[in-house]
Amino acid sequence: MPPSCEERNSFDWEMGGQFKKQEPWEELERSRNIPKPKLFTLKFRHLAIFTLSIPCFAFFFCIIYSFLFHLDQTTKTHCQVWNVAPSISSSIGILAPQKYVWKICIALHSAPRLLLCKMYHTHMQKVLKKVAFVQRLVLFTCTLNVAEVFSLLLLSVVPSVEDYSLHTFCFGLFLFFSSIYLAFSFYLFSCCRTSPSSLLDRQSLYYKRVLLMTNLFSILVAMYCYWRHNTYCEPGMYSIFSVFEYTVVLSNMAYHFTSYYDFYHTSVTLGNSVSGLGTTSAMRQE
């Protein structure tokens, strides 16, 4: 006859619980404590460096190559006056190999830029005020960031020599989306933060302020120089416009590089699942 329930419990107690039935939740808890093998861990500060280096390399390559080998073609305008600095539009969209280098690099950098857009949306929701107005502004600001990425892609795909009006429209969209995004994101981080800011946060905010002022000032001066060049056809005026156009683009890149400080201690880990049937990813603060 099989032992009764009381006898089994007594037997289990005497044998040190060797034959006790394991509950499902205990097995699940044990499986959670098993360390999962990691495929790789990516630090977001390294991603920020990589994301900035691609368009930065493309920018300097196109400008320097155009200045050294295609100066006449890239500085010629309808005014037929002397200029020394090629514009960005003529440097990236007219001649080879510049146009191919620019398109490839902008396409490569777009995926990590979109990932950073998502990161900023999550980060802002976490550290900023939990009021409806601020959260709606966060969503609007991050939408502007995504629109900036796609407008940059579009103006890179459509060069000015093929469709000047569409290229100009896309460049205008890029300036609008980028400048509004820079202004709103700086406002949110400077005025709507709830969690205490660290030294890296304060350093990032300082750089954001300087780069925002530089970007907006350069846009205004570049617009004035462009109008003056088209109105009066003064020698060298288009080159001054080009220099401030460089400043607009470089200050925009540098502003986005402040993500290096915002996510300095953030990393993402990709590893094998316990069952071996797939992979898992996790994001954490160091």
Question: Main attributes?
Answer:
286 residues; mainly alpha; three-stranded antiparallel β-sheet
Q: How would you portray this structure in words?
A:
The chain is mostly helical. The protein has eleven helices and three strands, in the order ααβαααααααααββ. Strands 1-2-3 form a three-stranded antiparallel sheet. A hairpin with a 6-residue loop joins strand 2 and strand 3. Helix 3 runs antiparallel to helix 6, helix 3 runs antiparallel to helix 10 and helix 9 runs antiparallel to helix 10. The longest helix has 34 residues. It is globular and about 55 Å long. About 8% of the residues have low confidence.
What is shown here, in short?
About 8% of the residues have low confidence.
Low-confidence runs of at least 5 consecutive residues: 10-22, 273-281
Task: Give the helices and strands as they follow along the chain.
Answer: HHEHHHHHHHHHEE
Distance between the first and last residues' Cα? 60 Å
What spatial order of strands do you see in the largest sheet? 1-2-3
Overall mean confidence score, pLDDT:
85
Question: What does the secondary structure layout of this molecule look like, with pairings?
Answer:
Blueprint: H1 5-14, H2 24-33, E1 38-43, H3 44-69, H4 71-75, H5 88-93, H6 98-127, H7 132-157, H8 164-191, H9 199-232, H10 237-257, H11 259-262, E2 266-272, E3 279-285
Antiparallel strand pairs: 1-2, 2-3
Helix pairs in contact: 3-6, 3-10, 6-7, 7-8, 8-9, 9-10
